[in-house]
Amino acid sequence: MALDRFPSIPGKVNGTGARLANNATNFAAENALFLKVFSGEILTAFDESNVAKDLIMTRTISSGKSAQFPVTGKAEAKYHIPGEDLLNTTDVSGRDYLSQIAHNEKVINIDDMLVASTLIPRIDEVKNHYDLRSIYGKELGKALAKRLDIQILKTMFAAGLTTTANYSGGPTGTELLGADTMTAGGLVEALFECARSLDEKEVPSDGRFAILTPFQYYKLLTADNVAINKDTSSGSADAAKGTIIEVAGIRLYKSPHIAGVQVAVSGQNADDANVANSPFAGTAVANDDAGYNGDLTGIATGGSAVNDLGFVAGHSSAVGCVKLLDLATESEYLIERQSTLFVAKYAMGLGVLRPESAVVVNTTSSAAS
Asked: Are 362 and 310 in contact (CB under 8 A)?
């Protein structure tokens, strides 16, 4: 009886393999070596392509569908009047010495498994005279890395735009309107405003960051500004190496994905609306119930000008990631297909933890022109 592990489905086209090969003489020995090389390539590509994953809080769980993050408010201190009972709120002064500390929780769900896969026909491995395995391996890893990077950035923007506090009377996200994010002077001023906002909300100084577009990053690097020390021995910027470390105590990173988070993305990212989390809930963003795929265009008005996203800044406590299955690879030779199936996958979820730890910087349309 012939095996039919992948029967034809009416209206569907069965998957076909990627056309690549490696001149092999011993399949068993060659395949074992190939698996080790392939897996290493994917993990390397994932680490090198992702900017934002190390800038957030991550919790790993061994089972379950979600993780709970307890939230507590603040206590109050009051001067004690001699003789009054701390437990009695009806004394002469009428003071309530006991602090009513607010409690809440933030729950982050695990999204469905995200996969990137390819099918490699055996005949192509034998016929092909050059090796594309490492290229295909890197592409699978980069596909996962880019998807996660964009989702983290979207969640960071969601944190800064959140107007609902974690607990009654607590702080919310910050949105800076009308910044000039196209000039070095405007960027420096905006970064100091971000630092001021984080200071006022008592966000720790350690662990602050900002993610800029490449244009903004290099505009700062090449500018002649007193706020940026370019002494290569001890300064915060080195034009020769193309790096700038920090401004206003905020560590700077660049990402080509910043511009892509502004709109409800179509194509491969369209199913960001089908995840188990809704980080844009509690914001004024269009499609706020569309998972990570909220539409961030025209999110605010400054006077008569519509604002567009400039960049995002914040602290590592702004966004949380719950990880059920870390990046992993699987492969299996399918006799009935005479091909090898390779899959890269992970199962994670993202959510806003502390909205006060994020700042969204908007630029007016006039400033961006």
From this structure: yes
Radius of gyration of the chain (CA): 26
Q: Alpha helix (H) ranges present in the chain?
A: 27-49, 122-127, 133-161, 184-200, 214-222, 365-368
On whether the CB atoms of residues 200 and 174 are closer than 8 A, the answer is no
- Gap between the Cα atoms of 95 and 195, Å rounded: 36
Using CB atoms within 10 Å of the CB of residue 183, give its burial: 0 to 12 exposed, 13 to 18 middle, 19+ buried. Answer: middle
**In 260-304, at which residue ranges do the beta strands (DSSP E only) sit?**
300-302
Residue with tokens 């719950």: 322
Per-residue pLDDT of the chain (369 residues; tens, 9 = 90+): 444 554 544 444 456 555 444 444 555 555 555 556 666 666 666 666 678 888 999 999 999 999 988 877 778 888 787 878 788 766 556 677 787 777 778 899 999 999 999 888 888 877 766 666 667 777 888 888 888 888 999 899 999 999 888 887 888 999 888 888 888 889 999 999 999 999 999 999 999 999 998 888 888 888 766 556 555 444 566 666 777 888 889 999 998 888 766 655 555 567 788 899 999 888 887 777 888 888 776 554 333 344 566 899 999 999 999 999 988 888 888 999 998 888 889 999 999 999 999 999 987 644 433
In angstroms, the CA 302 to CA 35 distance is 55
> In angstroms, what CA-CA distances link 205 with 234, 236, 249, 357?
20, 17, 7, 11
Amino acid at 253: Y
DSSP structure string for 331-363? EEEETTTTEEEEEEEEEEEEEES-GGGEEEEEE
Sorted by sequence, the CB contacts under 8 Å of residue 319 that are 6+ apart come out as 56, 57, 152, 155, 156, 159, 350, 351, 352, 353, 358
Q: Tell me which H or E stretch contains 243.
A: strand 243-244
Residue 200: strand pairing partners: none
* Burial call 281-304: b when 16+ CB within 10 Å, e when fewer: ebbebeebebbbbbbbeebbebee
Tokens of 9: 């489905």
DSSP 207: T
